[in-house]
Structures are given as C-alpha cells and as structure tokens.
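Cross-posted from the bioinformatics board.
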Amino acid sequence: MSDEEAEEEYLFKIVIIGDSAVGKSNLLSRYSRNEFNAHSKATIGVEFQTQSVEIDGKEVKAQIWDTAGQERFRAVTSAYYRGAFGALLVYDISRRATFDNVARWLDELNLARMLVGNKCDLEDSREVSLGEGKRLAESEGLFFIETSALDSTNVETAFEMVIREIYNNVSRKVL
Ligand code: GDP
C-alpha cells in the first residue's frame, strides 16, 4: 500500500430509526461498547458513536446516531437525517405494531438500506415471523437481518452490512 492509500479515510453517517423501545439504543451500545442494559431509559439529547470497520484493507468510520428519544413520526428533526448515508430501520419481533409501522418510517426517509428485526431472543413471544420480515425487506428493496442486542446475535453483522454497502456505493472521501 502506498503512503497515499494508507492516508485515505472514509466517514459515513448512519442513523438508527424505528418505534420507541424496539432496542435501538441497546443495538448501538452492544455494537460500540459490547454493553446491554435491561432497564435502559430513553436517550436524552443527541447521541452518536463512531466505529471503525476495516473494509478492503481500508479504515472506514461510521458515525452512528441514535434518535435521542424523538421517535414520533415527523418529530425526528431534519438535522438528524442531514448528511446521513444510510439507516438501520429497527422493529421488535415481539411487538407487531412496531413492524406495522415500518412502512411509515420508510416514508420518512429514502435512504433506508437495512431492516432490522430486533429481540430475536424472544422466540416465545414472537409476533412477526422471519418470513414476514424477509418479504417486507424484499418488497422495499432493503437488506434484512434479525438481531438480539441481549445475546449479541447478528449485531455486528447488521451494522457492518450497512457500512459496507455505503462504502461500496456512495462513499464520501473526507481526506
Ligand atoms: P429504544 O427506545 O429503541 O432505544 O430501545 P432500548 O434500547 O432503550 O430498549 C428498550 C427495551 O428493550 C429495554 O428494556 C431493553 O433492555 C430491551 N431490549 C433491547 N434489545 C433487546 C433484545 O435484543 N432482546 C430483548 N429481550 N430485549 C431487548
């Protein structure tokens, strides 16, 4: 690798959206700090974490934003979405209403790439089947994955798939 290549750096902004209490904050804390909080309160203020991923030998940084408890439709301010390259759109597999609202979240933004069915550890109280999630993702042209912030299932994969996709498509060079 030449010196020039070694200095290349990529930075993408990613937002996490979806209904309240689907597990957005916990997915981010699991991914960035390997932490899970069973009694997490609504995020106060704006929160983001920067994570580095190595893709094709290059360091790709993702600035991942949490909604800061502003999950009502239209209440998420335009500043939250501004400059975002991609999104994780999360629902809770054990709460049907959060899945039914996915379409409304999609109306809010046209950059969603990844549909995330969280809490897949709650198999006993599952209300949304894996097939339903897959079909919705297919019809909307999204990637799809089921995750659990609780037991770490697929959390890293969910974030890294969207980071990789952005890198492959609409990368913004910052250096
Ligand atoms: P947010 O409002 O979407 O940011 O949701 P939070 O991250 O605050 O999580 C809401 C609640 O769901 C909390 O009580 C979490 O402990 C719980 N939770 C989050 N992710 C999971 C998961 O993967 N499995 C289970 N069983 N509970 C989860």
